[in-house]
Amino acid sequence: MVNYIEASSAPPKNTGAIRLYDAEAFEGMRRACQLTARCLDALADIVKPGLVTDDIDRFVFDFGMDHGAYPATLNYRGYTKSTCTSINHVVCHGIPNDKPLREGDIVNIDVTFVVDGWHGDSSRMYPVGTVKRAAERLLEVTYESLMRGIAAVRPGARTGAIGEAIQTYAEAERCSVVRDFCGHGVGRLFHDSPNILHYGRANEGPELREGMIFTIEPMINLGRPHVKVLADGWTAVTRDRSLSAQYEHTVGVTSDGCEIFTLSPGGLDRPGLPPFIG
């Protein structure tokens, strides 16, 4: 049985109940998410061959500090960086280091800023220089998958409708959907209920209700969906070393659909690719 609770009266931990947020909370999420989006916009100008991912991490940390925000990943469950940088066959949670980006790489940069206690969570793919058509196509399919998942969000639908929309499209494009990771509730907590699967059936999962806030963040592979986590305990890679991509938005369920909190103010939701026309 799924329990829903008014967020203002919920305990400060994930109890499995789904929080329903009010208008004031939505405004807090707008502030946090738009700061994250502005940081991701700014990164579009600096991601190029030769840049080391530790420099991306420092940029994100400094951007947050300059704007009164704290990177949520820093010291989260032992993680020591301010962002995740996942390159090529890394599915998610890639740890920044001193390795430079190379011409033709694709890299996901995942940023979550905490602003006045609210978590703004988003990620984007960045082509590094000129990429091969197969990589470019993967980015296009992954972003379209995200937007189709978002289009399924409305009160009365179920979370499975999001997964079905993503899976149906991605697999029709001869790509696969990673099943080991999912979207999640977010707000005052970094990770909260419900889990948002990126595959499934429309009649499955909790009912979507006005006031819910969560991320949708499909990870799409050119090859098979299987992944493994490396010895560092964080970095997840494709088992067949095929390319993987991910885009992520934070959304809030409204009376007639949803609000995307993390939209790029500069129209750079797909940096390096033409603007999306949905």
From TrEMBL:
Q: What class of enzyme is it?
A: hydrolase
Question: Which gene produces this protein?
Answer: map
Instruction: Give the GO biological process terms.
Output: proteolysis
According to the record, cofactor stoichiometry and binding are noted as:
Binds 2 divalent metal cations per subunit. Has a high-affinity and a low affinity metal-binding site. The true nature of the physiological cofactor is under debate. The enzyme is active with cobalt, zinc, manganese or divalent iron ions. Most likely, methionine aminopeptidases function as mononuclear Fe(2+)-metalloproteases under physiological conditions, and the catalytically relevant metal-binding site has been assigned to the histidine-containing high-affinity site.
- Organism listed in the record: Rhizobium vallis
Q: What does this protein do?
A: Removes the N-terminal methionine from nascent proteins. The N-terminal methionine is often cleaved when the second residue in the primary sequence is small and uncharged (Met-Ala-, Cys, Gly, Pro, Ser, Thr, or Val). Requires deformylation of the N(alpha)-formylated initiator methionine before it can be hydrolyzed.
Q: What cellular component GO annotations does this protein have?
A: cytosol
Q: Where does a divalent metal cation 1 bind?
A: D110, D121, E248
Q: This protein is called what?
A: Methionine aminopeptidase
Q: Which GO terms describe its molecular function?
A: initiator methionyl aminopeptidase activity; metal ion binding; metalloaminopeptidase activity
Keyword Phosphoprotein included in the entry's annotation: no
Q: What is its EC number?
A: 3.4.11.18
* Oligomeric form and interacting partners: Monomer.
Please state every residue range assigned to the domain named Peptidase M24: 27-254
A Pfam match = Peptidase_M24
Q: Which InterPro entries match?
A: Creatinase/aminopeptidase-like (IPR036005), Pept_M24 (IPR000994), Pept_M24_MAP (IPR001714), Pept_M24A_MAP1 (IPR002467)
Recorded catalytic activity of this chain's protein: Release of N-terminal amino acids, preferentially methionine, from peptides and arylamides
Cofactors: Co(2+); Zn(2+); Mn(2+); Fe(2+)
Question: Which keywords does this chain's UniProt record carry?
Answer: Aminopeptidase, Hydrolase, Metal-binding, Protease
What's the family? Belongs to the peptidase M24A family. Methionine aminopeptidase type 1 subfamily.
Q: Which residues bind a divalent metal cation 2?
A: D121, H184, E217, E248
Q: Where does substrate bind?
A: H93, H191
Query: Does this UniProt record's set of keywords contain Hydrolase?
Result: yes
